[in-house]
Specification:
This protein has 256 residues and is mainly beta. The chain has no helices and 23 strands. It has a domain of 132 residues.
């Protein structure tokens, strides 16, 4: 597995990396000029050889974090100068900002009560969305927190976007920062929903609404065990996500 780039205008596909190891793409910078990918020496997720940054125009990648857990890398920050990643996978959550040039790390958020996942900065980097894992298989709640001086605000200032009664998760921001798209199973299927936000305060406005239902057996988001693999992302004019598709053939035979 290697990292490829597809030009949606021309359809051209170009390979971005060239090693013989397993390479998984994780993040493309907001301006599209760089990508972060991690190299695995074998099928074991713990066999990581580090995470690298490479230009999408081509060229060798450079190792910016030897000890980062690939599954914990979250988002770019400070106009692409830093990367947010999660230390460990325990309930005692700690998120760290790592300067990609100097390697200096600063604590961004600590939360000892529940695990936090799927953090995403707003386009202006003044806010961050994330999900609190109340019960891993049944209850997750999406919040927004202000970001000041490179640090997330304390829990007292967190803004609840969903009520935590079901599986709402993996939120991503619209380009103008006034809408959150997220995955939800509130109707019995895993579908894409959205919540409008007040422009300045980022408090929810009105009720969440469905953006794209996926209630078919043939095309569904339900088979994904690793929800992050769905890769829900937002562009200026659309959504991008992975989707499983099942099909089969009907055969006819004559039996003696």
């Amino acid at each position: 597995m290697q990292v490829w780039l597809k030009n949606l205008g021309t359809g051209a596909e170009t390979r971005q990396t060239s090693s013989s190891a397993i390479e998984l793409p994780l993040l493309i910078s907001p301006d599209g000029s760089r990508t972060i990918y991690c190299i695995f020496l074998g099928p074991d997720p713990q066999s990581s050889a580090g995470c690298f940054i490479a230009p999408t125009s081509g060229g060798e990648g450079r190792n910016f974090c030897q000890t980062c857990n690939p599954s914990s890398i979250q988002d770019w920050f400070d106009h692409g100068r830093k990367v947010l990643y999660k230390k460990g996978i325990s309930v005692n959550t700690e998120f760290v900002l790592r300067d990609i040039d100097s390697g200096v790390e600063t604590t961004f958020l600590r939360y000892p009560k529940f695990s936090i996942a799927a953090t995403r900065f707003s386009p202006d980097e003044r806010w961050i969305s994330f999900q609190v894992v109340i019960e891993a298989a049944t209850r997750r709640q999406i919040f927004i927190a202000p970001v000041r001086n490179g640090v997330a605000a304390d829990e007292a200032e967190w803004i609840p976007v969903t009520d935590g009664s079901g599986l709402d998760r993996n939120a991503v921001w619209s380009p103008d920062g006034n809408l959150l798209y997220f995955l939800s199973e509130r109707d019995g299927f895993r579908c894409i929903w959205a919540q409008r936000l007040e422009r300045n305060s980022k408090h929810p406005v009105g009720e969440a609404f469905p953006v794209h239902h996926l209630h078919q057996t043939r095309r569904s988001l339900m088979p994904f065990q690793e929800i992050g693999a769905i890769g829900l992302s937002v562009t200026r004019n659309g959504l991008i996500f992975s989707l499983t598709e099942m099909n089969g053939n009907i055969w006819m035979a004559n039996f003696e």
